Amino acid sequence: MQSAYAILIFSACLFGVFEGCFGALPSSIKTCPRNHPDPNRCILDAVNIVRPLLAKGDLGDGYHTPPLEPLYLDNIEMGRGNEFRAVFSDIQARGGSNFIIEKLKANITNLSFDVYILLPKIEFVGKYSLKIRLLLLNINGKGDMRGTFKNARAYVKMRGIKVHKDGNDYVKFKELPLRIKVEDAQIHLDNLFGGDPVLGQVGNNIINDNHKLFLAEVLPGLEKGLSKSFVEISDNILQTATFDEMFPLE
């Protein structure tokens, strides 16, 4: 689940830079002119400068963003018929300070950003409620969970539009579709099968031995839910920052 952390991190970096446009910029923020000869490099440099500060959410000069260490995620619910239902809540994830932007395609004029992110290691804890059929076994339970994801990769397609209001152009992202892949995962779910220790161990072994199958069930719903949340977050942050403030001419 926490491979989605990658998208939240880049959004926090990018939108955190934008948030500084509400007044005088903190000294840690580097702006990117819309006519910059290499906007990809400019944005990457800006993110890399501010990235270490995002762990605690202190950008300096009195500017703050929600801290990324740990990152808190609200309830995520998903389901498909009677064979698959899941709720993940009270999630805390650590490891975002090591994120790497592997590739960025930015078009400031068109407000188009394609971002490819790698997270070498994410550790998470939280609560779950789950019913899933995996390899002919009906796995169900409710309780605490913990785990580690290694080499989580995420791709987000950010497409914005300009909205003219009160003589100024503002930025709005209509949708932020994303895709997530996890190379390796270790997950432990407490209290599977009502707390039966034998069946619980069997269930966790099956999930970990077949984590790609398990994630194939979980990730589509997670991607959809997080995409909706990102749109709401970006709208809240960008509603008072004009396009000219975010991306000046020079």
From TrEMBL:
Q: Name one GO biological process term.
A: circadian rhythm
The keyword Signal belongs to this UniProt entry's keyword annotation? yes
Which residues constitute the signal peptide according to the record?
1-23
Q: Which Pfam families match?
A: JHBP
What keywords are annotated for this sequence in UniProt? Answer: Biological rhythms, Signal
What the entry lists under InterPro entries is as follows: Haemolymph_juvenile_hormone-bd (IPR010562), To_sf (IPR038606)
Q: Does the keyword Lyase apply?
A: no
**What Gene Ontology cellular-component terms does the record carry?**
extracellular space
**Which family does the record claim for this protein?**
Belongs to the TO family.
- For this entry, the protein name equals Uncharacterized protein
Organism the protein comes from: Hermetia illucens (Black soldier fly)
